[in-house]
Amino acid sequence: MAVKSLASYEEYLYGCRFCPMCKPAAEVANITQLESHTTRARGMLLWRYLHDMTELTPRAVELLYQSTLDSISEAWCVNHYPVSAYTVSARAEAFGKGLAPEPVLEALGRRVPAQSDVRGDVLLLGSEAAEIGEISLLEPASRVLERAGHSFETLAMPSGAIEYCLGALKHGEERAREVVSMIEGAGATSIIADGPETLWALTRVYPLLEATLPVHIEITSISALLAKGVSKVSEKASAWKGKRALLHDSRSACALGERMAHDAAIQPGFQGPEETMGTGEVYEASRQVVDTLGVQRLNTVWTRSLSRSCGADDGLWLTYPRIAEQLACERLREAELLGAELMITDSLLCAWWLRSVRKSTDVEVCWLPELLV
Amino acid sequence: MLHPLQRKMIETELVDTVGPEYVLTDEADRIIYGVDYMWVPRMWIDRGLTPPLPDFVVLPGTPEEVSRIVKIANVYRIPIIPWGGGSGSQGGIMPVYGGITLDLKRLSSVLEINRDAQTVTAQAGINGYTLECALNAEGYTLAHIPASLHSATLGGYIACRGSGVLSTKYGKIEDIILSCEVVLPEGKIIRTLPLPNHAAGPGILQLFVGAEGSFGIITEATLRIEKLPEERRFKAFLFDTLSKGFEAGKRIMLERLGPSLIRLYDEGETIKRIRKILGISLESGSYMVLGYDGRPQVVEPQESLAVGICRELSARELSEKVAWEWWKHRYNFYFPPHALDFPWMFGTMDTLCTFDKMENLYWTKKQTLEERFARWDLEYLAHLSHWYPWGVMVYDRFIVQNPPVDAEEALMLHNEIWNLAVRTSIACGGVLNEHHGVGLKLARLMREQYGPAFSVLEGLKSALDPKNVLNPGKMGFGPNR
Fold first, then answer.
1. In Å, how far are A269, B147, B290, B293, B423 from B169, measured between CA atoms?
2. pLDDT per residue as tens digits for the range A301-338
3. What is the pLDDT of residues B175-212, one digit of tens each?
4. Mean pLDDT value of segment A128-134
5. Is the CATH number of domain A230-372 3.30.565.10?
6. Quick check: B150 and A81 CB within 8 A?
7. B371 CB near a chain A CB, below 8 Å?
8. Which residues of A touch B334 (CB under 8 A)?
9. What ipTM was predicted for this assembly?
10. Do the chains contact at A36 and B24, CB–CB below 8 Å?
11. Does the N-terminal or the C-terminal CB of chain B have fewer CB atoms within 10 Å?
12. CATH architecture of A122-227
């Protein structure tokens, strides 16, 4: 399996090039208000490029990168056109032609923590922590997992997901092979991913980059483990009971979901079951933990596959941090308007990013394991 | 054409007004502002051509900034084209003479929901879906729910005199609006009277409703809102013929039975679209959805009487599920691959007439267009979807599945079809358009529609906008001066 060429998505670009229906789901365009940031504009640009009607000019490429992979538009589209996949292919095309903008090249050249060899049957793979550059951020997760009776070693290294998102497929493949090699060298049979982006990289991106882990290695996430053992470790967590919380799902979670939003969700004022906005273990695990703790979950249509990006998705926080900051501020503002006291996410990266821009709001941000510490 | 030097001079002033990040000059940004949902600019792109583009795209953040930009446009006598959601179907946003496209989406706040007066005041650039959700969260609805809800803006609703799917009960946007704030063509900011129904002269509110930005740029509006209905009901029927369905709809309206919706499809649309989309077995007939909104004690007897009329006209009642299926999935028709798209040529020629003229208008138009364009195998389809106590809107469409490949040839055929369609409507007692507006598409036909009365519009335009900087080339007005 490999990343498909942009040309193979012609049919979908043809459909998207004039379609304005996913505008309410536009993450970046709804912040900048630029029409050129919409999925329609991107569809038109790429379709015209495929038909030699336009060049990938510096500004065109910049527009292509001033976005997440836009899986939310894909989820909103009643026919779920593969927006995310064609965005990766388009970036790969631009990157392959040496047209990547400076912020993308800078992101690819970032320093990442060196990792010494580890050995262990079970590894906590801290790729989100490694991207942030603060391994200590994994501590709450380590403590909770230990209390739940899990023994493991920590391996903190970038997964290659960001390189993949930026269309730097060779870079992504190199990172992925390094991770696979470390895991194999450690003699691990089980991996615990520190967040959805790490889990997505291991299970969905690596096969595309042809850097697959051996089949005997079991892969799970912290939230899935916590969901299974939450009752064992929740006795000290009564402080959260009754708190009003908004659950934030990352865009990687959407990529891991089993089913995207049903078309009923795009009706204005929709107030149906949350599952209408997407289903999958990736969503259920964190909800199970939160529900067990007695946290009061707030309802919104912008959840699960329709969860809007907080900016810490798909490398945007590294390439265009100002846009990513605006996204985070907007998510916090929305949480506040809904009456949330807490914003909870299973993504370490999202929690860290939301916290880093949290200024004029009383909404507290929690990474899921922190609820149990 | 602006000389590059002069372009930079103007850009300097625009940047000075709104800041550099809100002035776009790169073609990669401007191309999307050259296209709305009209077939022609889309076709132009489909054929590998570039439609007319604005010289600048500017995103003002306040009405005062709008005013300053309008003044700059007047100084340099360059056009200024308001942009909302880019979902219009008439080319109203096409910058045919270049100039400044004014994207109003930064003006997107709900300023007040007044529960006492049951009104909302919001800025013009707010997205329709966003506004409706904000109202729904408070237990209200704008009750203006067009197909373009997810893309259109409040300003676009008003500027194009739009209709929502429930307009039969709640009215069109011109009935829902109470007042608005407008930046006039020379930059003055005004507010219309707080109420639409008064005897303080003829009133100026409706001068801006449907003017497509030719008389002023709407920046804010106050509108009536409704409580969310306690109950929403739909029933579906199949009539033997369109004529019988029409008779039922007419009687329901004349007897003032207050439906929220009567949507009656002709046989062509029933067989070709409804059957396919709803997945139900229909071999012939005319499909109708009848809707009711409100308190059960009120809608129950009204609905019962309306259903009685349908039965008297031998309508076959379909399951309610079928009716609800239509409501729940009505937006799906607009997503690819279901939405009308290339390589077809298509257009919606919605018109409006009194009840006595409807059948003649429908059949004459169908026959005239299908005969005249038989060579192109033109297909004429229609449904009747916005009803009044005196008449009905005919939402008719044409489809040509194999139009010319050459862009200019295709454009000429397109215009020829439209000319004949609109002239036939007018000759049969209809009007140019019911709710999509005029734009570039129908501009040339405005003088025929109004006759000598067009001089009133021209006089107003000259007085308000002597340099004709606001959206030139639309509504039958010429280029900027």
1. 20, 17, 12, 8, 30
2. 999 999 999 999 999 999 999 999 999 999 999 999 99
3. 999 999 999 999 999 999 999 999 999 999 999 999 99
4. 95
5. no
6. no
7. no
8. 19, 21
9. 0.96
10. yes
11. N
12. 3-Layer(aba) Sandwich (3.40)
Tokens representing residue B463 in the block: 């007085």
**Chain B CA closest to residue A16:** B336
Q: Which of B234, B266, B268, B239 is nearest to B251 (CA)?
A: B239
Tokens of A297: 């979950």
State the nearest Cα–Cα gap between B338 and chain A, in angstroms.
10
Helix (H/G/I), strand (E/B), else coil: B346 = strand
DSSP string for residues in A126-193: -HHHHHHT-GGGGHHHHHHHHHTT---EEE----SHHHHHTT-HHHHHHHHHHHHHHHHHHT-SEEEE
Q: Which residue of chain A comes nearest to B334, CA vs CA?
A: A21
Name every residue in A having a CB less than 8 A away from some CB of B.
14-24, 33-36, 38, 40-41, 44-45, 48, 51, 53-54, 57, 59-60, 63, 77-79, 81, 263-264, 266-269, 301
* Residue in chain B nearest A44 by alpha carbon: B32
Optimal mutation site among A10, A11, A14, A36, interface B, most CBs of chain B within 10 A: A36
Do B127 and A24 count as a contact with CB atoms less than 8 A apart? yes
> B134: nearest CA in chain A?
A269
Cβ distance of A18 and B28 shorter than 8 Å: no
* Amino acid symbol at B208: F
CA B197 to chain centroid? 24
For chains A and B, what is the number of CB pairs under 8 angstroms?
118
- For residue A240, give every residue at least 6 positions away whose Cβ sits within 8 Å of its Cβ, in sequence order, or none: A293, A294, A295, A342, A371
pLDDT of res. B1: 77
- Between CA B401 and CA B343 the distance in angstroms is 7
Q: What is the pLDDT of residue A1?
A: 61
Residue boundaries of the structural domains of chain A: 6-100, 122-227, 230-372
State the DSSP string of B389-423.
Answer: SSEEEEEEEEEESS--SSHHHHHHHHHHHHHHHHH
Query: A122-227 and A230-372: same fold?
Result: yes
- Phi and psi based region of residue B40 (left: phi greater than 0; alpha: psi -120 to 50; beta: remaining): alpha
Q: How confident is the model at residue B277 (pLDDT cuts 50, 70, 90)?
A: low
Cα distance from A298 to chain B (closest Cα, Å)?
Answer: 13
Q: What is the pLDDT of residue B202?
A: 94
